[in-house]
Every structure is written in C-alpha cells, then in structure tokens.
Design goal:
Helices cover 73% and strands 0% of the residues. It has one domain. By secondary structure, it is mainly alpha-helical. Helix 3 runs antiparallel to helix 4. The chain contains five helices and no strands. Keywords: Membrane, Transmembrane, Transmembrane helix.
C-alpha cells in the first residue's frame, strides 16, 4: 500500500507530475538543475569569455576572469544557489574556448596529440573560475542585504 505524500490528497489519481519513478526523478533533478538559469549562465559565460579574451594585455587569463565575472554577476543578480548550472556553463565555455584558441595551423599536431588534456585543463580552470565568481557574488549579495 502506498502512503500518501505530504500535501497531496489520497483521492487524486496519478498526475503527469507524480507518475511513478520518472516523476520523482524529475522533482529531484528540478531541485538540483534548472535549464533557464543554466542557459543564462551559459550566455553570460560566453560573453565573459569573449569580452575577457579581447583585452589585449590580459590575454588568456582575461577569459577566465570574464567567466568568473559572469558567475559573479549571475549570483549577484539572481537569487538562489545555482552552483551546478554556473559550474557546468563555465566548464563548457572554457573547455570549448581553450580548444578553439589552440586550433591553429601551426599547432594542429599539438592539438591532435594533446587536445583532450588541453580541454581538460581549460574545463577545470573554467569550472573553478565560475564557481569562485558565483561564491563571491553570493557572499557580496548576502553581505549587502543583511541587516546590521
């Protein structure tokens, strides 16, 4: 015999939202990962990568600073913990960006041999940059909104 969930009537039949195992999985994944914040984080990370990489003096480090700034802005503007979305967006953006920047006619043999390692380093650095930016953005927001 199934026990009724809290807040649900026992007379209601199964709905699309609570249809067995798949419905429970959707609810749990909805708490962990949301598509809209991920897409927003991805767009902000791409913009941060492009803008940070266009600064001539800073160079490659500017790309990661741009990704960190994107995570910072998202945390400061949006409410809630979105570490998974921001981390995934930063990792994807940095991994693809590093591989695409390494693809050059002169470096083609190097990319062919070490491409996976290059992508791994870029992905890890992007993940760390995005998570640090998101953490500091949330910290600043909490500090500014806390009552004295």
């Amino acid at each position: 015999m199934r026990r009724p969930e809290l807040g649900r009537s026992t007379t209601d039949g199964p709905t699309e939202e609570s249809s067995g195992r798949l419905g429970g999985l959707r609810r749990r994944l909805g708490d962990i990962f949301a598509l809209r914040p991920f897409l927003l984080a991805l767009v902000l990370a791409i913009v941060g990568l492009v803008v940070g990489g266009s600064v001539p003096v800073v160079g490659t480090v500017g790309r990661f600073l741009g990704i960190a700034l994107a995570g910072f802005v998202l945390a400061f503007v949006a409410s809630g913990r979105r570490y998974v979305e921001v981390g995934l967006a930063g990792a994807l953006t940095a991994g693809v960006g590093v591989v695409l920047s390494a693809v050059d006619v002169a470096f083609l043999p190097v990319v062919a041999e070490y491409g996976l390692r290059i992508a791994g380093v870029g992905t890890t650095a992007g993940l760390i940059a995005a998570l640090l930016g998101h953490y500091f953005g949330r910290d600043l927001r909490a500090g500014l909104t806390r009552e004295l």
